[in-house]
Amino acid sequence: MGEQVEKKIIGKVPYIAFFIGILMLILLLIYSYTENYAGGWGDLSHNIMLGLVLLAFALYCLLFFIYSLYLWAVYHKQPNLDVSPANWAMRLHGLAVISALLWFFAD
Questions:
Q1: What are the residues facing 81 on neighbouring strands?
Q2: Angle at which helices 42-75 and 84-105 pack, to 10 degrees?
Q3: Contact by Cβ (8 Å): 15, 85
Q4: What is the chain's mean pLDDT, rounded?
């Protein structure tokens, strides 16, 4: 029997970056909803903070989506490389971008 060749894993960084981004989003949303805004413009300040958080998260995920797409496109035909983490990261980041933008443009 032939020796098993271990496949090198490609795409761990964007896969882990998705969970870090979700954690940052959750922390910033908790901060935004629990912070007391001073003055008569509290609702406006809250909505501006929420919008900026969502846009920053969408941009973060879009950049990692493009990076994951690049990794998958370059390495998916090489038999000695495992690109499933890049594939999963691409899917998760794409879904996160769409969800964040839908949330941003919702009523």
A1: 8
A2: 150
A3: yes
A4: 89
Spatial separation of the C-alpha atoms in residues 42 and 30, rounded to whole Å: 16
> Residue 47 has what pLDDT?
85
Residues in Cβ contact with 42 at an 8 Å cutoff, skipping those fewer than 6 apart: 36
CA distances (Å), origin 77, targets 14, 21, 56, 71, 89: 19, 29, 33, 11, 18
Give the whole-angstrom CA distance, residue 97 versus residue 77: 27
Task: Write the single-letter amino acid at 18.
Answer: F
- Cα 28 from Cα 80, distance rounded (Å): 40
Tell me the pTM. 0.85
The pLDDT tens digits for 81-90 are: 999 999 999 9
DSSP letter string, the chain: -PPPPPPEE--HHHHHHHHHHHHHHHHHHHHHHHPPPPSTTHHHHHHHHHHHHHHHHHHHHHHHHHHHHHHHHHHTT-TTEE-HHHHHHHHHHHHHHHHHHHHHH--
